[in-house]
Design brief:
The chain is an alpha/beta fold. It has a single domain, classed as Pyruvate-ferredoxin oxidoreductase, PFOR, domain III (Pyruvate-ferredoxin Oxidoreductase, domain 3). Helix content is 36%, strand content 27%. The longest helix has 14 residues. 40% of the residues are buried.
Length: 180
């Protein structure tokens, strides 16, 4: 198994954190992992993306031109990465703030209204975990128990009390994701 993933959006949406948690989850499963972030100088509001590769075999290069899965959180990222999803691949997008929506017919497209849900329920800090839950429903590439171990590894200890809230967000994401 080898899964090549791009997660892209604005800084502050939890893009890099989601990628880091996914990477740690793969490590907890004994997989080979690559985590390569890319972001502008802005801390919030600028674009950010992260490439994550999970594999049962050694990873030859972290640099990718095409992806098995794309998680897209804003319009600029959709414009940039939709064409780079491999035919038969998966594109997951959070519908908040889009003017144009994915149009490809040779990939699996899923919508998850994570931003809308997290704002309505005052859980904006778990929006990225809602999206990760959606991903794991349609592409179960890591086990939930390993995601929780990955969370524990990536969160500072002072935030470990938030792990049950994040676990609940994963379940919510699994319920919210819909195929387009």
């Amino acid at each position: 198994m080898k899964e090549e993933i791009i997660i892209a959006g604005f800084g502050g949406q939890g893009v890099l954190s989601m990628g880091k948690i996914l990477a740690y989850s793969g490590l907890m499963q004994g997989q080979e992992v690559s985590w390569m972030p890319s972001y502008g100088p802005e801390q919030r509001g600028g674009t950010a993306n992260v490439t994550v590769i999970l594999s049962d075999e050694r990873i030859s290069s972290p640099v990718l031109n095409a992806y098995d899965t794309a998680i897209i959180l804003n319009q600029p990222s959709l414009d940039r990465f939709e064409s780079k999803v491999k035919p038969g691949g998966t594109l997951i997008y959070d519908s908040n703030g889009f003017k144009k929506f994915p149009t490809r017919t040779d990939i699996n497209i899923y919508r998850i209204d994570a931003t809308e849900y997290s704002i309505a329920n005052d859980t904006s800090k778990t929006m990225n975990m809602i999206i990760l839950g959606g991903l794991l429903k349609v592409r179960p590439i890591v086990h939930i128990e390993n995601v929780l171990k990955g969370l524990k590894k990536s969160l500072p200890e002072r935030h470990h009390h938030l792990i049950p809230l994040n676990e609940k967000a994963l379940g919510i994401g699994m319920e919210l994701i819909v195929k387009e």
